[in-house]
């Protein structure tokens, strides 16, 4: 099976790659007033990719191109979730981008970053992991720096700095693993690493897993997340706190399954999971800027997402629970960012006072998304939390179950700090909050659309989680 | 049928939440829906084979098969009385809200949503389904307090949410533990009851029971986890308090008989003395602290700690291992379940009546009133009746419940007789409250006090009347509870 070079197997990726090129080229030929077409082209590429990914789910699991890329339920799930998430980001960005001169370049960058994430998820070879990492990272630096503010510049610099640092760490780990196993393909490494000496193996594991933590936005690679969430434009913030995680988490999952037990990878991932959720929650406690709060919240959320990765291969529930949580998280996080995008003039939690009566639909979507992030039933993240907590216990790590539940309680406090003002009457003296935000009416409209659709989606996904779990349960290819 | 009962209020709530229905039709929609639900519940009860111990009106649909969770509903003698109690309490709350004019449409929608969560919890035969409703009831009550409460409502609502959410997470941890130890993994309640998956794992069983007890004790609430209750009640709107005390507190004690006792019999027996001790302390401490209150609503709130203590005492005593005393243990469980219903009716009525004070005069302070019986005879009469019912006078449901709890638990463990002091203290505090607020010359804010309107005396009267019916003809309820209580006792003796 290793020699399979079927182009059709990579159809979803090709849609993204060709789409990004077409968008980029057409952007330089289209007259300025017709530039809106590139968003339609981007959406078409994403939909094409999603449809071919859905069709591929029915096909056989296989390793393609000399066993460097796995087409299995894990890849299939990320293909679908990433494409849907990016579509939502495009819908959210619609009005923000409408008059943007660089919208073709932005759309191309979004498509390339999505492609990078999918490559990371399917990578069955250390070199593809590095390729995916770079492809998913480099577009982000530009996307973060798009907004010409001091905060955005700082965030871009920070993201770039940490991206380079962790990229080097990742590559160093890859080199050591190559030295130990004599190959970069997982199919070979699975057996050749079993005889590797423990010391170097542990060092390499720490380096590779640690390097990927930058893409996941988890401890210790998380420093850029809150700054980027706060400083970049709404759509960029929603994209970079959602999509890159998908690929990174599945890449770590495959590593944990591939590495021999001597590598201590499960324990390492478990510790990083607890550190991420706890640190993210504690740091979010007294944030007053909703974007920054959401930034720290994503750090804690990726901690939960690392829990099933820590028990990868040790319980049949691991992969299914990771996918259920990933899908729920992506939808819920985008919903929260869509609300923030719709209300650009409200920059503090206190300024959300009176939203329930002024904008009931947005307030409702915000409540659903925040309670969703807490893990309140029947939202999608609840299904995910239930799944990962069960998987952790079943995989022999009940301490992770306890950590998940304890951190859910911690997180409740700061999410409620945001929910509480919604019901209150708006402070009449606050000049920032006007009931008719004229200058941003368009952004508000696309934000509202995405927010309500997302909130409805997270409820539906929560109730139907059983079905999605069945679809993606099982194991990754080895 | 049960699905219709559970989701009908939710469906109406969604319509009310979205469509711009005017105030009056919104209120009527709530009342009508709740009356229809009550009728349907009565239909299920009447149509049920009397004396049966298994599930009726059962339905099961696969939901999350990978972990063995399904949409499984059904009722038996433990859940049916509580289902009926929920339906009655919400009808009372709807009648009381017929004059509610602070955004009545979302108010009705929220309480219909709450009604669905409460009904759903008592029919759930799957732990995840149980948990979904358990958690959603917290969310609903949070918004009820933070939006329609008074005083320091946001803070009270936050305390309530954080505290009870801690409980729900502990509960979820326990549920996951039960499912993980069951082979194959399942969250199905009858399946787990049959399997008792942690028999023979004393350490793990102890931890899982500890998590369940923590979660249920916070919701009940028992000492020392009761501190969220007084502020939540003090600042909650009247109907919020009625639903909170009448229904939500029962979710905790219901969990004891539905989940903890039958699924973890060995651990329950091992812990029964600790549970009894918590029950006795709750009885005495709740009564004494209630005695010390000068705020009438806080006083009623603290009597809940006392009354729910009897329930904990009863279920704890049922775990004492003495095979010859099956009858005593059945009496204790019977009494505990009866007390859940009885407390819901009586305390619901008390909160409805106490709420009138705040609505008229803006304060619950007992010292602000005096001789209220003069201007408000209807209020005085109903409050006196509810107070006598609450202190366990024969002829009311509370007597039936507490008599059985004490018969059972004193026979099993004579030391529990010390809890009888709680009854005396409760009698003292209610008589003192009656005397301070209602008797003597009319003074303070009692002057010019308007007596109860129809929408105020009708729901309270309905609840008190039901407490009298159960007190005089207890067999209506006991015949339903007894077979289920017997099977709980058999299960916990395994």
Throw out a few tags for this protein:
heterodimer; A: 478 residues; mainly alpha; two-stranded antiparallel ribbon; 2 strands; globular; B: 494 residues; two-stranded antiparallel sheet; 18 helices
Order of helices and strands of chain A: HHEEHHHHHHHHHHHHHHHHHH
Radius of gyration computed on alpha carbons of chain B:
21 Å
- Strand and helix order of chain B: HHEEHHHHHHHHHHHEHHHEHH
Oligomer: heterodimer
Helix segment tally of chain A: 20
Which class of secondary structure composition applies to the elements of chain A? mainly alpha
Q: Could you tell me the strand content of chain B as a percent range?
A: under 5%
Give the number of DSSP strands of chain A: 2
Radius of gyration of chain A: 21 Å
| Low-pLDDT segments of chain B | none
The overall pLDDT of chain B, averaged over residues, is 93
Q: Shape of chain B from CA axes?
A: globular
CA-to-CA gap between the ends of chain A?
12 Å
The structure class of chain B reads mainly alpha
Number of strands of chain B: 4
Give a topology summary.
The complex is a heterodimer of chains A (478) and B (494).
Chain A: H1 11-29, H2 37-58, E1 62-64, E2 69-71, H3 73-97, H4 103-122, H5 126-144, H6 150-181, H7 186-192, H8 198-216, H9 224-231, H10 234-240, H11 243-258, H12 265-284, H13 290-310, H14 318-342, H15 355-358, H16 360-374, H17 380-394, H18 398-423, H19 441-463, H20 465-472
Antiparallel strand pairs in A: 1-2
Helix pairs in contact in A: 1-2, 1-4, 2-3, 2-4, 3-4, 3-10, 3-11, 3-14, 3-19, 4-5, 4-11, 5-6, 6-7, 6-8, 6-9, 8-11, 9-10, 9-13, 10-14, 11-13, 11-14, 12-13, 12-18, 13-14, 13-17, 13-18, 14-16, 14-17, 14-19, 14-20, 16-18, 16-19, 17-18, 17-19
Chain B: H1 2-18, H2 23-46, E1 56-64, E2 69-75, H3 79-96, H4 104-123, H5 127-148, H6 153-181, H7 189-195, H8 202-219, H9 229-235, H10 238-263, H11 265-291, H12 296-317, H13 326-361, E3 369-370, H14 377-390, H15 397-412, H16 420-438, E4 443-444, H17 454-472, H18 475-492
Antiparallel strand pairs in B: 1-2, 3-4
Helix pairs in contact in B: 1-2, 1-4, 2-3, 2-4, 3-4, 3-10, 3-13, 3-17, 4-5, 5-6, 5-10, 6-8, 6-9, 7-10, 8-10, 8-11, 9-12, 10-12, 10-13, 10-18, 11-12, 11-16, 12-13, 12-15, 13-14, 13-15, 13-17, 13-18, 14-16, 14-17, 15-17
